[in-house]
Amino acid sequence: MSRELINAAIATALARMRARLPRFIVQFPAPASINGTYPAIGNIEWTNGFWTGMLWLGYQLSGEETFRSAALTQVRSFKQRVEQQNHTDHHDLGFLYSLSCVAAWKLTGDETGRISALQAAELLFRRYLPVAGIIQAWGDLSDPTQAGRMIIDCNLNLPLLYWASAETGDRKYRDAANDHIQRAAKYLVRPDDSTFHTFYMDADTGAPLRGSTHQGYSDDSCWSRGQAWGIYGFPLVYRYNGDASLIPLSARLAEYFLARLPADRVCCWDLIFTSDEVARDTSAAAIAVCGLLEMARQLPISDPNRGTFESAAEGILLSLINNYALAESDPGDGLLREAVYHMPNNIGVRERVIWGDYFYLEALMRVTRVWAPYW
């Protein structure tokens, strides 16, 4: 990839974001587009942080006050959301508050962002089941039919807990995150290095129960976005806890993922499929690029696998730029076409999804500079 190509891709992405800022300052893009356009929603979804994260990336990439101002406006919305505990009864508080409020604190020293993120970390900690050693993904904590569910996505929510522990000096957040990642590595990763989307633990005894899927093709298949969450989430946690086993684990997940890509290097929505005729998930591809780059960064420079994984990431990103990125003049919203939100429920199939846009922009950031993650 040439620097000119990357710079052009960034310029196009920022132009598309600028054009949509008037609609998405007070309100947020919905998780998935409908016929290419994101409905405007309030701060109620698990995905709202991705748009604010894009605004922070836009600010870092361009230095433009417009992006900074819009992001800070949205931080005030996240403050209100956590104070009112509005749609916060789930584990995706990391997706929401790392990319909005932690980013605001790290980039601008915004105290509102810091306080709101600490409040969100406390709510996330309350979902920790100490006997099972996991953060419960969603569902009423008092409902035994919902209890004990962890999912691979949660790897990226854990950095909020590590950050809160560092900010406050309270080890409870860090200890809970360490417990969860150990069980994620043990039970969500199968012997063949594919992953379950979901795994149930007995909340009363801590015994492992069963693996299943919520969004994949079947309980025995490997949901592409879940595998990508694993590739990225384990090395992100390594940044905080230094568990050296997480890097080769991420590498094995990456090898499984890379071996099951179609010819254009952009994964189908489940890795059981490799045909060009099956719907792609460009959001999973973008997450995987970020994960491959993060994991490779943790390998010694002399390790030959470092270059292999960096080349694989660049190959996927190049395909996204050339084949799936929207041009400045293309109608509708978003940065990437051909994503999938929830195939079993037929939601957001072959549409744009806001997290796919975020991770695409993060990938462009990562290949142009040394970047300190908001995670």
N-to-C span = 26 Å
Shape: globular
Helix content: 40-55%
Strand content: 5-15%
Based on helices, strands and strand pairing, what is the structural class?
Answer: mainly alpha
Rg calc:
19 Å
Could you please describe the fold and organization of this structure?
With 375 residues, the protein is mostly helical. It is 52% helix and 8% strand. The protein has twelve helices and nine strands. The strands form four sheets. The chain has a three-stranded antiparallel beta sheet with strand order 5-6-7, with helices on one face. A two-stranded antiparallel sheet has the order 1-2. It has a two-stranded antiparallel ribbon with strand order 3-4. The longest helix is centred in the last third of the chain and has 21 residues, at 304-324. The radius of gyration is 19 Å and the shape is globular.
Question: What secondary-structure arrangement, pairings included, does this model have?
Answer:
Layout: H1 3-20, E1 28-29, E2 40-41, H2 48-62, H3 65-84, H4 93-108, H5 111-125, E3 128-129, E4 134-135, E5 149-151, H6 158-168, H7 171-188, E6 198-201, E7 208-212, H8 224-241, H9 246-258, H10 282-298, H11 304-324, E8 339-342, E9 347-351, H12 354-366
Antiparallel strand pairs: 1-2, 3-4, 5-6, 6-7, 8-9
